[in-house]
Write a structure and sequence with these properties.
Residues 90-303 form the ABC transmembrane type-1 domain. The chain has 319 residues and is mainly α.
Amino acid sequence: MTTTDIPAKPARAKSPAPPRQQRGRIRREGAAWVFLSPWVLGAVVLTLLPMAVSLYLSFTDYDLFNAPRWVGLRNYVQMFTEDPRYWRSVGATLMYVVIAVPLQLALALAVALALKSMKRGKSFYRSAFYAPSLLGASMSIALVWRAVFNDGGTVDNLLSDIGIHTGGWVNKPGWALLAVALLTVWQFGAPMVIFLAGLQQIPVELYEAASVDGASRKRQFISITLPMLSPVLFFNLVLQTIQAFQVFTPAFAVSGGKGGPADSTLFYTLYLYDRGFVASHMGYASAMAWVLLLAIGAVTAVLFRTSRSWVFYANEGER
């Protein structure tokens, strides 16, 4: 008798779970879905469904009053080839991002370093510096900012006292965008708090060893602080860049909703608002919104790609 003649041993059937265990698992899963249902419902109704509708509208001619009329890619073709104001809005937005984000992060890091070395009053100053992040996005603060930088405002009077006559920043094409960028830089509280938390996680032993070796404070900052803080810096960079591309309220308040002077503050979202709700070209505005989404996604992907060369993690040698 060969081994091939031996009948195969039948597979052992998996015994079903006891009914009591099955009922308990079903109850637990049901309870989880009950608690998740508000988030799922909100995500579907307030995010996914509006996104699907806007994607459809981007291929239509829709004026908010009549039924949408399918036009295919005409909105996108017009956007890229026939609308010079669109490209001016792109240029103004890119200029704003390049100016505002580095200045904001540099100021946030500088203040975080100063707070880390403080012995007394750290909690008070941390709250005081964080307050503008809570107030700066409001229309009231933006209007106050416009008055401060307007002709005859506080900044204009202070500069005139030292012999610099600007005539008001918000009325000059070369200065209006800088005034809006400074409002964003003033709201450095959120990245500052994140930087401060990251600085407190750096081991003190590293600085002590560097001091014993004779490293100066500048060398310690370059060789210890920046590498150890690079994940936090990368997080703030991505977050603030995404927010900068979506800036709206300061530009609307400073320019009166027109993007002036000479379209110098015509940011992308402000022009999108103008096309959608002022000119009633909602199909065109929807196409602009999807291009902005893809652009932010591309910029974020580039930042993640380049981060491999300058972001360092403590356990990367173990991976």
